[in-house]
Amino acid sequence: MGKSLGIIHFEDDTLMFTWYQNTADVMHDILRPTIENYRDIPYEESECTCGKDESVQMGTDYGGGYWWEGRACRHCLRVTKGHMPIEAVVEWDGYPEWWPEKYRW
């Protein structure tokens, strides 16, 4: 099971980090505020319980990069909608302008 970097971009330019599962094309739902050890974030069954999720853009560096829109909660540190890019209304190839240059391949 290959893991690539997943970054969640909030509208106020806050970035949060997780991993993207390459084989299944699924964004992991647990977020971290820093990139350190993002590949070691465990899988835990949980969800946003506060109801304060927001519109976000999320992307991965897998396959040269691509990104899509979804929802996430910065309080519960969870992706709440858009785990799979195939579910997105629109998906873009490449890196978005908010993607940090140092994390591009």
| H and E order | EEEEEEE
Overall 3D geometry? globular
Low-confidence stretches: none
The description of the largest β-sheet is: 7 strands, antiparallel
Q: Give me the secondary-structure category.
A: mainly beta
Distance from first to last alpha carbon? 20 Å
Overall pLDDT level: 91
Topology:
Layout: E1 3-10, E2 15-21, E3 26-27, E4 54-60, E5 66-73, E6 78-81, E7 91-93
Antiparallel strand pairs: 1-2, 1-4, 2-3, 4-5, 5-6, 5-7
What would your notes on this structure say?
This protein is mostly beta strands and 105 residues long. The chain is built from no helices and seven strands. Strands 1, 2, 3, 4, 5, 6 and 7 form a seven-stranded antiparallel sheet that branches. Strand 2 (15-21) and strand 3 (26-27) form a beta hairpin.
What's a concise summary of this model?
It contains no helices and seven strands.
Q: Any key phrases for this structure?
A:
105 residues, mainly beta, 37% strand
